[in-house]
Specification:
RT_dom; two-stranded antiparallel ribbon; two-stranded antiparallel sheet; 101 residues; 22% strand; 31% helix; alpha+beta; Reverse transcriptase domain-containing protein
Length: 101
């Protein structure tokens, strides 16, 4: 429970001045959060790298970094793939903003 409160606090700071993300139904969306699961959403790979960088900075400030772990380099995010739709927590999320499928 404490981790969830801590991560929510960090995410609010990260997103405080963030204007990126995608627009669905007239609302700007840059993340989906449920319990201890967070999904970041960006309009481009470059935007995702920038958002991950801000998240890493804020996380490190509160001791949530993995300083002594085998850290993955954010800059090598080339494995990311642009998709037309995906299932998240049982819901189909699609790039047109529709949920009719």
């Amino acid at each position: 429970m404490l981790f969830n409160i801590y991560s929510e606090f960090v995410m609010r700071q990260v997103l405080d001045n963030w204007n990126g993300g995608i627009t669905i139904g007239g609302s700007k969306i840059s993340n989906l959060r449920f319990a201890d699961d967070t999904t970041l959403i960006a309009a481009s790979q470059e935007e995702l790298v920038a958002l991950l960088s801000v998240l890493e900075q804020h996380s490190a400030a509160y001791g949530l970094d993995r300083e002594h772990d085998n850290r993955r380099e954010i800059k090598s995010i080339g494995r990311c793939e642009v998709v037309q739709s995906f299932v998240y927590l049982g819901s189909l999320i699609d790039n047109s903003g529709s949920c009719e499928k």
